Amino acid sequence: MKKLIIVVMACYGLNARAQVDESKNFLYFYSDSVVYANSIKLRPDFYNSWQLRADSRRIPQEQVKFFNNENGFFANTRRQTIIGEGSFSERIVQGKINLFQEIARDAFLYDRGYGYGRHRYGPPVRQSVDPRMYYNKGYTDLKKVNYNNLKHDMADNPVSMNLLEGYRKNMNASKTMYVAAGASIVAGLVSFVVKGSNNARLSDGNSFGHQQGFSSMSTPNFASSFLFLGLGAGLAAGGYAVDRSGYRKLEMAVDAYNR
To answer: Where are the transmembrane segments (predicted)?
Structure first.
């Protein structure tokens, strides 16, 4: 009898992901067990820290992998943060690859009925896909949105892989342009300082001439300085444009995979 119970529990654990009814409110634990509840709330406590409650019972955040309620579907990002701070991200794209976006929930606004998720103040806004987001497949562990992770998980889709490769090239190009922009701007500023200092020394050296009534003041030529600064600004703008184009390719790669 005990063996039968163990087998049944093991089968439940293995099939928990397939049995989840997302039309109901539920807690999905790291143990792959699912608990349904009438009410699940994420609220600030007395110390302004987030507190998860199911039917008025406090639930330890570190045990909950996902939860679903009337406001949306949320994933625990505690294990993805460096300091292990308890936080949840909302699922904004559901498909073969799910995307999760971190939502800032201000306790002051929450108490005044602004809410979060599907009921937040104003229409929900999906940000462009970027490395600050997380993703997963089904109910597996969250991963950071980056080239190496997605390359492994989207390897079975050639279209997504081509777009992902384009994203990688754009990111490398934008980094190069940003570095070049920084170097040009620094060179321009140094040129300004050097030319200004040289002009000041010349002025001091000719002070005797001024006393005799002669004017030998000359205006320094900052043309090269402006050239460096302009080049730096142009490279920075170009880097930003290439950067944005890369993020669009990343988003297209995810969309192509979910078709």
So the answer is: 222-242
Confidence band for 194, pLDDT divided at 50, 70 and 90: confident
Tell me the sheet residues that pair with 143.
135
**Rounded to the nearest 10 degrees, how much is the dihedral formed by the CA atoms of 200, 206, 207, 213?**
-130
| 104-119: pLDDT as tens digits | 655 444 444 444 455 4
C-beta of residue 228 within 8 angstroms of C-beta of residue 187: yes
Question: pLDDT tens-digit profile of 165-187?
Answer: 999 999 999 999 999 999 999 99
Look up the pTM and report it. Answer: 0.71
Pair 92, 74: CB distance under 8 Å: no
Q: Say whether both 130 and 188 belong to one domain.
A: no
Phi, psi of 94 (to 5 degrees): -115, 130
Question: Is the Cβ–Cβ distance between 247 and 167 less than 8 Å?
Answer: yes
Q: Is the pLDDT of residue 8 over 50?
A: no
Domain that holds residue 124: 2-145
> How would DSSP label each residue in 7-76?
HHHHHHHHHHHHH--TTS-EEEETTS-EEE-S-EEEEE-TTS-EEEEETTEEE-GGGEEEEEETTEEEEE
Please indicate, yes or no, whether residues 125 and 164 belong to a single structural domain of this protein: no
Q: Give the DSSP H or E segment for 198.
A: helix 158-205
Q: Is residue 153 a part of any domain in this protein?
A: no
